[in-house]
Amino acid sequence: MVNVQDHTITEAKESMPATGFQVVFREFLKDKLATMSLVFLLIIIFGAFFWAPFVDKEALMQINLRTIFMEPGEGGFFLGTDQGGSDVLGQLVIGTRNSLFIAFSITAITMVIGVLLGLIAGYYGGLIDNIIMRVTDFVITLPMLMLIIVFVTIVPKYNQFTFVLILSAFYWVGTARLIRSKVLSEARRDYVNASKTMGTRDFSIMLKGILPNISSLLIVELVLNLAGNVGIETGLSYLGFGLPPNVPSLGTLVGYASNPDVISNRWWVWLPASLLILILMLAINYVGQAFRRAADSKQRLG
Amino acid sequence: MWKTIVRRVLVMIPQLFVLSLLIFGLAKLMPGDPFTGMITPQTDPNVIEELREKAGLNDPWYVQYYHWIVNAFHGDFGDSYAFKDSVSSLIGERALNTFWLSLFTVLLVYLIAIPLGIYAGRFQNSLFDKGTVLYSFVTYAIPTFVLGLLILFFFGYKLDWFPTSGSVDVKYDAGTWGYFMSKLYHLILPGFTGAILGTTSVIQYLRSEVIDAKTQDYVKTARSKGVPMKKIYSKHIFRNSLLPIAAFLGFTITGLLGGSIFIETIFGYPGMGQLFIESLGQRDYSVITALVMLFGFLSLLGSLLSDIIMSIVDPRIRIE
């Protein structure tokens, strides 16, 4: 008797279309490059976060005249040393950790702001939508990069938290716009109307009804935003307007290349960080595209 | 048509107003004023105070804002204390360089992107198409400064084919052929960097546009009346796909302005983006304020331009 029941259950499972993470899983199974990107990303993320606490931060901050610009392998420095005589590999590990952490923070904050505003604008429509969208449209046309740089230079007591807040104040607009356009059509669906007639509160409908239905879009947006934020943070740090000097970023290492001697003769100082940023961006974007395909049944490979 | 344009321009006015208020507020938050640079241990604080009073720095903020806006409309943004020159003449000099770089970049973007996008769309799933898709994926993901540095490193330093900084060789006089060639020579590396990054969206858009066009009625009609395939692509589809691309122009300009900060810094190109970074280093706030205002105005103008071209090209989005 028990056997028969088991049998029917497995059969029922097989006939059901793949849902949720099954789709994502199948998509990654089909696309070897996406799987490799994901594995690579996880290795980098876990590697950086677990290795970073073991790096001697004091030694990196000190200037050691005897070890200036050592080539890779020389004096026990696997990736050589920079103009201050500090180990490049150690800075690379700490920089990766900091850059990823900052990018995660900005992504989290901008996603929360963007999703909430997008939900409210798309769900209520009318005047509320109009106001939120006018503000969004305005922020999008601002010269964001310049304003961020100006804010970074004039904010008193500048540290990594203010940096995250300044960037988040600008970069929520893209998400808000996207979510709003999706919610606008979703909020006119039958299940939302049914919920309304049953007297469910608006915020319940938004968070428990609509939000799960646009979750696939959210994941794609999350991953692509993460890639964008890694690029923005490292770029600003490269220019010298990113993370404060006591918090080295991947961009800080690349920034040493503004010295003509470093860029032409000391490639080991800036090239590993540049290539790491490039590979990170490619991997995150590739994973994001796999998610996007999984979210759209027309584009699926698996 | 005109209604749309007039309405779109009217929308821009409050945007400009808010932008100017925002930037004025930022300028007030910046430490110091134009006279801070003149203070030496010998200066009498009363003299500075008198100068401040004369310049209207002790007036209420709305009076100061009014003076600032009136002066800005006359092209007067005050003086730069670091460069000892008026801000407008300082920016004017650099703006021309940025203009040439942007023009060169936009030309390159369309020269590269149009054939790539059209051929990739025409021969979908061919090796060429796959290569183009890969190219646009990589250029989409790569940050401006990483691409710029790699290009500078290989073509500027390792191969030594191109100059690594500046906008023109000092040994030539303005107006000669050598001067022009030297300018062009200096534009190549920064121009290609900007162009490679700019092609991504144009290629992707054009490619999907051509793929969509294949199944559309006007193409079927052309085929059934016996127009050769080559002509359908070069005349019918090309024209139809190109119009929306023209509308991208405004956004391309906006994107270029943002990118110019990185590209001009990396290639040591004396344009507005580099001036911005230099002024920040010297805390030259009058220049910074003027540049942010100018870039903000140009981005608004860019999106206005895009919307106007779009409404000319596509009658469906006109406001009646």
Automatic annotation (TrEMBL), chain B:
Family membership: Belongs to the binding-protein-dependent transport system permease family.
Protein's cellular compartments: Cell membrane
Membrane topology classification: Multi-pass membrane protein
Species for this entry: Rummeliibacillus stabekisii
One Pfam family per UniProt: BPD_transp_1_N
Regions that span the bilayer: 9-27, 99-121, 133-157, 184-206, 242-267, 287-313
Gene Ontology cellular-component terms listed: plasma membrane
CDD domains, sorted: TM_PBP2
Keyword match DNA-binding: no
Keyword Transmembrane helix carried by entry: yes
Chief place of localization: membrane
Keywords from the UniProt entry: Cell membrane, Membrane, Transmembrane, Transmembrane helix, Transport
Protein name stated in the entry: Peptide ABC transporter permease
UniProt superkingdom: Bacteria
GO BP, sorted A to Z: transmembrane transport
